[in-house]
Design a protein that fits this description.
By secondary structure, the chain is of the alpha/beta class. 43% of the residues lie in helices and 10% in strands. The chain has eight helices and five strands, in the order βααβαβααβαβαα. It has a five-stranded parallel sheet with strand order 2-1-3-4-5, sandwiched between helices. Helix 6 links the parallel strand 4 and strand 5. It is globular.
Length: 204
């Protein structure tokens, strides 16, 4: 389940990392099924039909908004792997990195309550345009959460979506990834997923 905000949902013309990741997984023989209640974007469905559209990305959502809905999404989709990318909108809306990290930790708790053996890939957030937000502080907290909550029966891996990401060339609006940015983010998700999903194993 790709779970998060607009960086997960994308737009009709810039669908984000999901298509590139799906195609890369298929190329490596990984039998995966993306799940979630969403298929399109706020502006309609993506023009490509060559990937699994299902996801749980919601434009503009903060961690409290995700928490308000996540139990129902999880009960319906029953994912055994979750790609969690959240916190950017908490910072943009005036929240602190500490508050965003607490929201992310609460989401992990809800995800595990729905499936105690779930595998989680936790994304460090990309840079946010030319505005000074505490992205570095939040990402340090995300790394600490992953290290502290990682369990043998429910592992957490980090996808570094920040290092090397350049808003001036990897986005179409200084925030959301264009094709270059999507390719970069996909490669980082894939690197983390490889440690959790052997190519011969199918998973949601």
């Amino acid at each position: 389940m790709p779970l998060g905000d607009s960086l997960t949902q994308g737009t009709t013309e810039n669908i984000g990392y999901r298509r590139d990741l799906w195609l890369a997984l298929q190329a490596q023989g990984a039998n995966v099924d993306f799940v979630g209640s969403q298929r399109g974007t706020p502006w309609g469905e993506p023009p490509q039909t060559d990937f699994d559209w299902d996801h749980e990305g919601h434009w503009g959502y903060t961690t409290p908004q995700l928490l308000a809905n996540v139990d129902g999404w999880l009960a319906s989709a029953q994912p055994d792997i979750v790609l969690l990318l959240a916190g950017s909108n908490d910072l943009i809306s005036g929240g602190t990195s500490e508050g965003a990290a607490q929201g992310i930790e609460s989401l992990i708790g809800r995800i595990r309550a729905a499936n105690p053996s779930v595998r989680i890939v936790l994304g460090k957030i990309p840079p946010i345009g030319n505005v000074t937000y505490d992205v570095e502080g939040l990402n340090a907290r995300i790394e600490a959460i992953a290290a502290r909550l990682d369990q043998p029966g429910s592992p957490i891996r980090i996808a570094d979506l920040n290092t090397g990401f350049d808003c001036s060339k990897d986005t179409f609006d200084l925030v959301h990834p264009n094709s270059l940015g999507a390719s970069l983010l996909s490669s980082r998700w894939l690197a983390a997923l490889k440690t959790l999903l052997p190519s011969s194993t199918g998973a949601n």
